[in-house]
Amino acid sequence: xxxxAFWALSLLSLAVAVLGVVVARRDxxxxxxxACLGVVAVNAILDRRNGGAR
Length: 54
Hints:
The protein is mainly α.
């Protein structure tokens, strides 16, 4: 995954998590956190598949 895409998706997911805290909705908060973890996991899988090279 390109670094720009990784950071954009991570920041968007974190923004959704923070929005969930601000509006006091746990479901939105947890969805944002799960999405952020998914972005990190997919990035790790793609890096491992490509031999760790960027």
